Amino acid sequence: MELVYGHPKSLKPIQTKYCPGCGHGVIHRLITEVIDEMGMQEKSIILNPVGCSIWASLYFDFDSVQVPHGRTPAGATAVKRMLPDHLVICYQGDGDLAAIGTAEAVHAANRGEKFTTIFVNNAIYGMTGGQMAPTTLVGQKATTAPYGRDPIENGMGYPIRVLEMLATLGGTKYLARGAVNNAVNVRKTKQYIRKAFEAQMRGEGSSMVEILSQCPTNWAMEPADSVGWVESAMIPFYALGEIKNELADVAGKEAGK
Amino acid sequence: MAAEKRLMKGNEAMGEAAVRAGCDAYFGYPITPQNELTAYMAKHMIDHKRVFIQAESEVSAINMVYGAAATGARSMTSSSSPGVSLKQEGISYACGADVPMVVINVARSGPGLGGISPAQGDYFQSTRGGGHGDYHHIVLAPKSVQEAADLTFEAFDLADEWRMPAMILADGMIGQMMEGVVLPEPKDPATRVAKPWAVGNKGKRAELNHVDSTQLVPENFEKALHARYARYDEIKRTVARWEEQHLEDADVILSAYGTSARVCLGAMQMARKLGLKVGLLRPITLWPFPEKRFGELAGKRFLVVEMSMGQMVEDVRLYTHGKSEVSFYGRCGGMIPTEEDVLAEIRRILKK
Ligand SMILES: Cc1ncc(C[n+]2csc(CCOP(=O)(O)OP(=O)(O)O)c2C)c(N)n1
Ligand code: SF4
Ligand SMILES: [Mg+2]
């Protein structure tokens, strides 16, 4: 009998500590499915961030390095430079990447560092209990934006579209945004991850997959409502798709041979 | 064949010593008075096909050092005081995750942006654990270009052996001055300490490797810290190093490190010519501090000389257990004491 669906080998068969409905677990699964398909388990290293996914190293069945909050791309830069034949994954939340670690993220991307960032955008600081993130939508409530994010009057600024910002940099080769709120988006997101990982192993420039992710706990929603909110509130602002794709056209080249 | 003596700036000698120690990766950010060191590494690391990155900040640089070191590479950064302040978060994480690395501080005057002249105001930051939490790391203080090269070379071995950062605490004088130096022979990579804990190249290794400082279970964390401090005790017993001269008959012992120790050496020689019984005790390792040697000399009179408002003097008082009269003479803000200044202080103390 053919096994058509099983637990990824690179993901440990244990219950995660994530809340019910959290996007992190789905994203972990997608990453490990791709790693298994590429046969890269023994040569994968994850840089796990400070955020809810600080637990990542408990679940991924490969080596990990944990760095200070926001410094994930600096650590990933050096790990990949030392081990260029490894698949290096820089896993970051929105606070980690777009607030405290903006400098590291922008400069690693600009240098064209050849690791892949998995950027989990849940529009909130999950781990610390629901503070406003750089990606929090206008009007969205947070413990530190009790009346909703207000860009002008209370000077809270506008949500940052990270990929569109990074797209202007010469070092970035592949920037795609997916979501994990329904099966179609999950499947597309997996394809983006696969493209990014393959580009990394071909030694192309910097790659990042942003994933819109549910945080029902800090959005104060039922899990079922939170997937709807991704659709109705997040996707209209954070457009899904490949924001930048300057990858070598491997398939095209092979067809033309 | 005797090794060749070369005339080099301290910054360049430290760079060359790092290259010869087998530094695999260097990460830096410009700051005076250590810029020649970063420039030296830019050229020589690239020539040797090793990794060099001019990072976007010291914060990023230290985390690159951490990442490279996590893979088992010999990894280093250099900076000067304000930049080393920014590295403290990374150093705390490295100590928490037992990651070896070499950090060079070519110190300048502070606080704040301060000045670019030599100073020794970073003693507390270096020896007390300048970041958060319970930790220490090795701190080595060279007094000459030769010693700067030798200690940098050795720092890589010490860091690897003890799994912690090893810091060179130099100052702008050591970094900028030119002296003759005989460089160490390149380290044979086969003699490096094995790093079975490093990430990558898992192959048939049964366990996963996680380079990580997180520990959310207090009982476990307490145990881990006790284990680390037991290692610190071992380091105190075996790594502490100092230079001493004329202690037997000394009526006053000068104590200083780095550049100010060099000034004290001159002052001691002048004093001896005048028939004054002056000795010198120069810590070479600031952490571990040569506390045992100071304890043995408790009761003797000390004059501590620093290019600061007085920081190491607190350790001299601590480790002479209140039995010694300890005086202090300091210059700060980038001023350097002269031999005459120190001699005058000796005469004032001895009333001669
Ligand atoms: C230097 C520092 N500042 C603040 C914190 C506290 N902190 C931990 S996680 C976090 C925010 C995480 O949010 P995000 O990156 O969006 O990840 P999420 O938990 O939402 O997945 C903060 C501020 C810290 N650990 N270190
Ligand atoms: S707080 Fe939010 S991001 Fe964190 S585990 Fe819970 S749902 Fe996930
Ligand atoms: Mg978040």
Concise structural overview:
The complex is a heterodimer of chains A (257) and B (352). Chain A is 38% helix and 16% strand. With 257 residues, chain A is an alpha/beta fold.
Topology (elements, then pairings):
The complex is a heterodimer of chains A (257) and B (352).
Chain A: H1 23-38, E1 44-48, H2 56-59, E2 63-66, H3 72-82, E3 87-93, H4 94-100, H5 102-110, E4 116-121, H6 162-166, E5 172-179, H7 183-201, E6 206-212, H8 216-219, H9 223-237, E7 241-245, H10 250-256
Parallel strand pairs in A: 1-2, 1-3, 3-4, 4-6, 5-6
Antiparallel strand pairs in A: 5-7
Helix pairs in contact in A: 1-7, 4-5
Chain B: E1 5-9, H1 10-21, E2 25-28, H2 35-47, E3 51-54, H3 58-70, E4 75-79, H4 81-96, E5 101-107, H5 123-127, E6 138-140, H6 145-162, E7 165-171, H7 172-176, E8 178-182, E9 210-211, H8 218-239, E10 242-245, E11 252-255, H9 258-273, E12 278-283, E13 285-287, H10 291-296, E14 302-306, H11 312-319, E15 326-330, H12 339-350
Parallel strand pairs in B: 2-3, 2-4, 4-5, 5-7, 6-7, 11-12, 11-14, 14-15
Antiparallel strand pairs in B: 1-8, 6-13, 10-12
Helix pairs in contact in B: 1-2, 1-6, 3-4, 9-12
Thiamine diphosphate (TPP) is lined by residues 50-53, 69, 93-96, 120, 122, 124-128, 133 of chain A.
Characterize the structure shown.
The complex is a heterodimer of chains A (257) and B (352). With 257 residues, chain A is an alpha/beta fold. Chain A has one domain: Rossmann fold (3-Layer(aba) Sandwich). Chain A is 38% helix and 16% strand. Chain A has a seven-stranded mixed β-sheet, sandwiched between helices. Chain B is α/β, with parallel strands linked by helices and 352 residues long. Chain B has two domains: 5-238, Thiamin diphosphate (ThDP)-binding fold, Pyr/PP domains (Rossmann fold), CATH 3.40.50; 242-350, Rossmann fold, CATH 3.40.50.920. Helices cover 41% and strands 20% of the residues of chain B. In chain B, the strands form three sheets. A seven-stranded mixed β-sheet of chain B has the order 3-2-4-5-7-6-13, with helices on both faces. In chain B, strands 10-12-11-14-15 form a five-stranded mixed β-sheet, with helices on both faces. In chain B, helix 1 (10-21) runs parallel beside helix 2 (35-47) and helix 3 packs parallel to helix 4. The termini of chain B are far apart. Strand 2 of chain A pairs parallel with strand 9 of chain B, so a sheet runs across the interface.
